[in-house]
Amino acid sequence: MNKIKKILPQDSKLTREQIYQGEVLCFPATDVSKQLVSDVLTLLKEELGEDVRTAQFRFSDEEFFEHIGKLRKIIYTQTYFHDLAKKLLVELNFIPNENAFEPIRLRVITHKGHENPKAAPIYYAHRDTWYSHSQALITWWIPLHDLREEETFVFFPEYFNHPVKNGSQHFDYDEWMLDKRQLTVGWQDKNAGREAFYPSLMEEISDSQKVGFSAKAGEIILFSGACLHQTLNNLSGMTRFSLDFRTVDLTDHNENIGAPNVDNLSRGSAMRQYIYPSN
What we know:
Layout: E1 5-6, H1 12-20, E2 25-27, H2 31-48, H3 61-77, H4 79-91, E3 99-109, E4 137-143, E5 153-155, H5 173-179, H6 192-195, E6 220-224, E7 229-231, E8 240-249, H7 250-254
Parallel strand pairs: 1-2
Antiparallel strand pairs: 2-6, 3-8, 4-6, 4-8, 5-7
């Protein structure tokens, strides 16, 4: 992968095959993704005020954290947003009855947030699969605003098929859930960044071939959970808001079809938090 591919919806099997090979795909905004952006921005404005991207400067850190936590819970738990996720799958030619999905999460990257020790895990380079996810995991990411390349995150494609030293062998999802249930349902423990264990890259790697991207509000970025990626430090003077959720094609999962597992040693299964077709 030298750059993110901008494509139109196609057969989902072809889409999955490309993603399992390490391609990152960008789809144009759809009716549903635009609705998601509009609905979440409305919630943000009701909670934070009209200019949501500068709201962090109008509240204390604790107040801002509480407001965001309230919205994360709404977006993650409400059936309305679950239904929008299913409709988005249909727009990209995925079949809801063949996929389980983890509900939508609101992601918030504040200006200079990397300077807060409690937020450190947000900026760790990682593969999503290190968190006890299936190798058939596909991550869906949607920005709420037009973003420049320096405001998003980067991929390290040269490591897609190559192992890196990481802490996934110490991550057991079932054990993690015993003490940190609130971390799995879309809102956060304010001390989690210091107290909970988050698998991360544990060696220096080359970033000479890292791939970044800009994105328009409502565009849909799809990538494998096995892609090594990292959120960039935000020095834009504004907060970055985005949405993401994860899907797993159940047939692929059951038949061990997916991205190569080169270094994921995590235990347990995050899929018990997913919403299944019968739900």
